[in-house]
Amino acid sequence: MHRCLICCALLLTGCTAPRIETRFVVPDVPADLRAPCVSKTRPYQSVADAALIITDLLQDRACANGKILATDEILTAAERRASGPSKQSAHPPPPGVP
Q1: From first to last of its 98 residues, what are the pLDDT tens digits of the chain?
Q2: Are residues 64 and 37 in contact, defined by beta-carbon separation less than 8 angstroms?
Q3: Are residues 27 and 74 in contact, defined by beta-carbon separation less than 8 angstroms?
Q4: How far apart are CA 35 and CA 40, in angstroms?
Q5: Could you give the CA distance from residue 88 to residue 98 in angstroms, rounded to a whole number?
Q6: Are the beta carbons of 56 and 39 closer than 8 angstroms?
């Protein structure tokens, strides 16, 4: 009786699900998206100089936000390819992006 149970247990261990293979997919992110948006350092002595500095900072913020959105599009596309065509993206688009 004990041999029968052992044999059944050995036979049932061969009925397991197939091995799950884990593959890491690294999307290609262009080098210009990895480069920082650096502000120019300007000396300031008047309100006009301060306005130029603020304008530079706003342009750098727009640059950084554009890079974040472009990188998010690349990563979202990679997630869709990795999860297959039936699943939707886990991350909703940022506000203001259709």
Answers
A1: 667 777 777 777 666 677 778 877 788 889 999 999 988 888 999 999 999 999 999 999 999 999 999 999 999 998 888 777 554 445 555 665 55
A2: yes
A3: yes
A4: 15
A5: 15
A6: yes
Tokens of 48: 């006009």
If we measure between CA atoms, which residue out of 36, 86, 88 comes closest to residue 66? 36
- Token digits for 94? 């940022």
Whole-angstrom distance between the N-terminal and C-terminal Cα of the chain?
67
In the chain, alpha helices (H): 2-13, 31-34, 47-83
The tokens describing 41, both together, are 């350092």
- Using the structure block, give the residue that is written with the tokens 């999307």: 27
pTM for the model stands at 0.57
